[in-house]
Write a structure and sequence with these properties.
The protein is of the alpha+beta class. 17% of the residues lie in helices and 43% in strands. The chain has 3 helices and 6 strands, in the order αβββααβββ. Strands 1, 2, 3, 4, 5 and 6 form a 6-stranded mixed beta sheet that branches. A hairpin with a 2-residue loop joins β2 and β3. The chain starts with a helix and ends with a strand. The model has no long low-confidence stretch (mean pLDDT 91).
Length: 138
């Protein structure tokens, strides 16, 4: 695999450590979808040349989708995944393996967007978790 595919796979491996979370690089598939679901999307990247070598710094967006229980605010379905700590935390999962199994020099969770209803499924809420990473390349 290449650098980008390796890093995506490294992030996927970190996210599957969260019990019950389905992880893929595509959105959930309609009625057959399993929630909670994390979709990894490759964001922008920057190449930099330095005397010490070349670096690649990129971003991932992890879109978390979860079904809301009746009578419960929608953001509650996402709360444990957006929390900075705990067994369901995206940030804690990444922080526990910041090199993504050697696929990155470092990885940092930068924040998340506000939870909102998924435009494709009114019973589901979503939020994006923003992740930055860097890898030195030869």
């Amino acid at each position: 695999m290449g650098l980008l595919a390796d890093a995506i796979e490294g992030l996927r491996v970190r996210l599957v450590t969260i019990s019950g979370l389905t992880v893929s690089d595509y959105p959930p598939d309609g009625k057959a979808a399993k929630y909670p679901h994390a979709q990894i999307t490759l964001g922008e990247g920057v190449y930099s040349l330095a005397m010490s070598g070349n670096d690649y710094e990129g971003r991932f967006t992890v879109t978390i989708r979860a079904a809301a229980a009746k009578g419960t605010p929608g953001w509650k379905a996402l709360e444990l995944y957006l929390d900075p700590t705990g067994t369901k935390s995206i940030q804690a999962a990444v922080k526990a393996g910041p090199t993504l199994g050697g696929k990155a020099d470092w990885t940092r969770v930068e924040g998340h967007t506000a939870p909102e209803r998924d435009p494709d499924n009114a019973a589901v809420y979503r939020a994006d978790v923003l992740i930055r990473w860097r890898k030195s390349v030869a």
